[in-house]
Amino acid sequence: MTREEAPALKDVISGVAPISIAPYKMAPVELQELKKQIEELLKKEFIRSSTSPWGAPVLFVKKKDGSMRLCVDYRQLNRVTVKNKYQLPRIDDLLDQLKGATIFSNIDLRSGCWQLRIAEKDIPKTAFRTRYGHYECLVMPFGLTNVAPAFMALMNRTFHEYLDQFVIIFIHDILVYSRSMEEHEQHLRIVLQILKEKELYAKLSKCEFWISQEGFLGHVISVDGVIPDPAKVKAIMEWRVPKNATEVRSFLGLAGYYRRFVEGFSIIAGPLTKLLRKGVAF
């Protein structure tokens, strides 16, 4: 875990009293899993017992592999938190740096936000209530409104010297790219040494090294250039006909992500965009 403290919460809006919400009802199997995961988090010193006047409820979200991820419902806290305005990078700008690269390595930081400590003054705000007690987080938990910009800022500070030279970073994903095998060996040594010094740890099962083609941020990158991920293109092609403005907005959000590959995208999407105007009927 890195020694840096993350300004994840910044300040709560002035005059707002602590918010505390009763725990959500859980099924017996969820309660069993809850007790198990709380014990693991306590053992890792990611959380501690709390007497904070703040308290958010928890729930489980099922992951792709069938396991359950414990999530704290921070929606009420997020509503009264001053937002971090740190800008995430434009995907287009990141991908433009890859011209001429022939070899890649992708490093996925393990539960990235959990590797950042929370400032002592902010810890009570992260408190959550459960059937088995009241706890607060010592590391940055998932679900806080400022998690992504805070972690992005840390990563940019950490790798500032090498950004757009041979390193691309998007939150917890690090892409190392090089023009030759010799360069790549040197670049990887630099990146891994920095991670070691900063005590930032990768999840090996999600990392890929020394590859000539790599999936990254919804794209496939290789020596031949950058193309949209075929699976995403298939999803767009098979999207059902939108029936309301919300569904139109969702479709345009996904399709628009690849607008750089579609000449005249705004003109083509024009009829759909008009459907988002107030008062326009389907």
From TrEMBL:
CDD domains: RT_LTR. Pfam families: RVT_1 (PF00078). Keywords: Endonuclease, Hydrolase, Nuclease, Nucleotidyltransferase, Protease, RNA-directed DNA polymerase, Transferase. Residues 42-221 form the Reverse transcriptase domain. It comes from the Eukaryota. SUPFAM superfamilies: DNA/RNA polymerases. InterPro entries: DNA/RNA_pol_sf (IPR043502), Rev_trsase/Diguanyl_cyclase (IPR043128), RNA-dir_DNA_polymerase (IPR053134), RT_dom (IPR000477). GO terms for biological process: proteolysis. GO terms for molecular function: endonuclease activity; peptidase activity; RNA-directed DNA polymerase activity. PANTHER family: REVERSE TRANSCRIPTASE DOMAIN-CONTAINING PROTEIN (PTHR24559:SF444), TRANSPOSON TY3-I GAG-POL POLYPROTEIN (PTHR24559). This is Retrovirus-related Pol polyprotein from transposon.6. The lineage of its organism: Eukaryota, Viridiplantae, Streptophyta, Embryophyta, Tracheophyta.
